[in-house]
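Re-run with default settings, no changes from the original entry. Doing this only to confirm the output is reproducible before filing.
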Amino acid sequence: MSVGASAASFRPNVTLPQNRLKAALAAGRRQVGLWSSLCSNVVAEVLAYAGYDWIVVDTEHAPSAPLDVLAQLQGLAGGTAEPLVRVAWNDAVLLKRLLDIGARSLLIPYVQSAEEARRAVAATRYPTAGVRGVSVSHRANRFGRVAGYLHNASEQICVVVQLETPEALGQLEAIAAVEGVDGLFIGPSDLAATLGHLGDAAHPEVQRAIADACARIRAAGKPAGILAPVEADARRYFEMGFTFVAIGSDVGILAAGSTALAARMREAIGEPYAGPAV
């Protein structure tokens, strides 16, 4: 056999690994997460081995463009955590670009209705099941090496929709019933703002709404997720019945840790720090 014929007959057997977050949510296993907004592949690689189950790569409230997301996905590869990329908006073009670079768990912000949830799911499915644009060679299919990717990609794609307003909570059951929605995520800060308690997610009215939403999501047979920057809140949300909880953020860890370290050292040398001039 000639070298050319041998090369032509070689087809690498490349398969997609299981989406651990999607599988865990389907099985009802509790998942500990972290929010990442620092837009750094180095930070992503540090976090990859920290023991989290999932890490949000944020593009809504962080200035990550697709190339930045790609670098973070590469940094997280091989670690303990499944990346969950939060898109800037429920937009098929944004979702298509992220899917092609290998994002397969997606958090869709500000979903207000079942129709908007269906639109999000459709953006992650190829025709005729959806509207995802077709490229035959990209990072998600290992540059054309995954046999059957076009027909089987959706099996490993996880769609989580974010509910952030009283209007969205009013449509919760209808949103949960949309085929292809793998989880429902409560956005506590925006929910607090839209309930009239801007900056106060701990307000009793907000907490009642969160508890009610969690119970209804569970009753609808879907896993419930939430962000809890305060560790005590994260423990309480798990006890409440949330399945996946982000227990802080890389920004919060860096800000709190660096400030506390500086404060301790200044106290040790007898030079209290009043803070930066504003």
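The first helix runs from residue 3 to 9. The mean pLDDT is 95.
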